[in-house]
Amino acid sequence: MVATNPFFRGTWTLKKFNATVINDIWPEVAFFSLVASMVCLVSKKTEHHLGINNQLLTVLGTVLGLVISFRTSSAYERYQDGRKMWTNITTASRTLAQLIWLHVPNDRENKGLQQRQTVVQSIVEKKSMINLIQAFSVSVKHFLRGEQGIYYEDLYPLISFLPRYSHMDTEGHPHTPEKLPLWQIDGEQPFNGEEKQKEDHSKQFSSTDEKNTDAASDQGWFSRNRSGKQRKFDPESVLPYVDSEQTLKPARMPPPTTVYDYIPLLRFFKWVVHIILRKAQPGMQRRRKKNAFAEIVESNVPLEISLILQGYFAFLLRSGLLQPASATGFLTNLNSLQDTLSNLERICNTPLPFAYQIHLRMSLWLYLFFLPFQVYNAFGYLTIPGTAFASFLLLGFLEIGQEIENPFNYDLNDLDLDYFCLSIQRELHEITAHPNPEPRDFVFNAINQPFAPADRRNAVELVSGNTEYDVSHEVGPVGIHSLRKTLVKSWMHVDTKTRQ
Q1: Which residues pair with 75 in a beta bridge?
Q2: What is the pLDDT of residues 100-126, one digit of tens each?
Q3: C or N: which end of the chain has fewer Cβ atoms within 10 Å?
Q4: Do 493 and 453 touch, CB atoms closer than 8 A?
Q5: What span, in angstroms and rounded, lies between the C-alpha atoms of 303 and 284?
Q6: Bridge-based pairing state of the strands 222-224 and 230-232
Q7: Residue 21 neighbours by CB under 8 Å, 6+ apart
Q8: Measured between alpha carbons, how far is 98 from 121 in angstroms, rounded to an integer?
């Protein structure tokens, strides 16, 4: 979800038009405007009259408008469903983090299946699991964008500590070379040390910034300081830095803007040239494709992470570290994450049937093509701007429906998945910053006035034992009555003052 209007945010460039559908429909609008110009000029300058009866105009226009409206509404419904699913991920992530941080005890003793460990070890364990919750949302982001693997700057540091091999000894060394599905990827590059990793990291980051600066700015990866100047921020700099056997890819990889984005008609000629070259040099084309794409054993990374969290939940149950109510909430939110992943996958991988799309577009083209012939008798030369406006209106709605049908990519009108992941990251760190103190550590102090406005004495004075609220054996009922009387007075004061 875009935070502000992308068309008016940041410096003005031609790329701002990517926030609209003008770049996609202007060739079609120009074509139908030329058809309208031809109809008007031929009818005016020659003896041929191209105007025809317009009885079908109203009927076909109404039906076509209803179909386009349904197309746009169904696409927007998918857009809204995607936003709702990310809200579910955010809510479940918060709840799971709170359950782990506050409900799982730090004190572990040798009792049954529970093994003794220090408080620091327990906190490290819980914080690592909360980092996996953060990694789940990041992995879902890459999964929906079709970015396979785990070697990303915002994902790998969060899951690098997970087991890699199917069988390990007690010291963490692999017995067998078989890797777990999460780490299955071919073509691995050797790692030559931390310094080389840092060098490659900086080079990749700088080249990515130079290539995608405008795209990053459009997506909100630049913030403004108090003077109003733009400054780039690096959210991956707060993540752990760990060694990797592969060069990590950027957290965001939007496709570069090309001339085909502004002149879509050229895509047809590009396709024709591609077909001709492939027929002329089939062997070279096959070799080039083989070298360009590495074979990847695809793994469902969000599913793998959820399995680790499910295993942690099972460990807590076996060790008796969770109360029944907390265990129910834990399992409910874990299932909510998996259910949300399935729904997001459904939205992403279920496009509108091609037959419906092509039939609707061809019907609209035919309608707009014959529109000037039907309205020329009534409008004359006004047929040209009228046809242009009708083409812009109908084609625009059709293109909007197609653009928001899959709202998980890098288009300016797509959902801002990076913003959602960063919000979850901030909230999880806020949860783990909570010290979880005992109530007596912060309730009974000189600042707290719990009975205001009827009684403005602080908590220290109220519990001193020398007040009318004393509930000792001698004056217990009287103290309770005085306390209730004070609470009723507070209610009366608040009710009266807030209604004036």
Answers
A1: none
A2: 999 999 988 887 777 888 999 999 999
A3: C
A4: yes
A5: 38
A6: antiparallel
A7: 395, 396, 399, 400, 403
A8: 18
Neighbours of 11 (CB within 10 A): 9
| DSSP 8-state class, residue 230 | E
Residues 94, 95, 100, 103, CA torsion sign? positive
pLDDT of residue 253 exceeding 70, the answer is: yes
User: Are the C-beta atoms of residues 134 and 93 closer than 8 Å to each other?
Assistant: yes
Do 408 and 417 meet the contact criterion of CB atoms below 8 Å apart? yes
Alpha-carbon distance 398 to 29, whole Å? 13
333, containing H or E segment: helix 324-349
d(CA 257, CA 17): 12
| Chain Cα centroid distance, residue 270 | 32
Helix (H) or strand (E) holding 313: helix 301-319
Q: Are 85 and 340 in contact (CB under 8 A)?
A: yes
What is the rounded CA–CA span in Å between residue 388 and residue 276?
A: 35
Tell me, what amino acid is at 432? T
Q: Which residue has the tokens 């979800």?
A: 1
Q: Per-residue pLDDT tens for 182-199?
A: 777 643 443 333 443 444
Question: Per the structure block, which two tokens stand in for 453?
Answer: 């406005």
Residues sharing a CB contact under 8 Å with residue 351, sequence separation 6 or more, in sequence order: 405, 406
Residue among 247, 253, 260 at smallest CA distance from 212: 253
Query: Residue 17 has which token pair?
Result: 């038009």
One-letter amino acid at 194 equals E
Crossing angle of the two packed helices 301-319 and 119-144, in degrees rounded to 10: 150
Contact 72, 408 (CB under 8 A): no
**Which one, of 210, 218, 209, 212, lies nearest residue 10 by Cα?**
218
Are 113 and 319 contacting, i.e. CB atoms less than 8 angstroms apart? yes
CB atoms within 10 A of CB 414: 19
- Do residues 304 and 163 lie in contact, with contact meaning Cβ atoms separated by under 8 Å? no
The pLDDT of 55-60, averaged and rounded, is: 78
CB 383 within 8 A of CB 39: yes
Residue with tokens 């807030």: 498
pLDDT, tens only, 130-142: 999 999 999 999 9
Beta bridge partners of 179: 165
From the number of C-beta atoms within 10 Å of its C-beta (0-12, 13-18, 19+), residue 97 rates as buried
Q: What are phi and psi of 222, to 5 degrees?
A: -120, 135
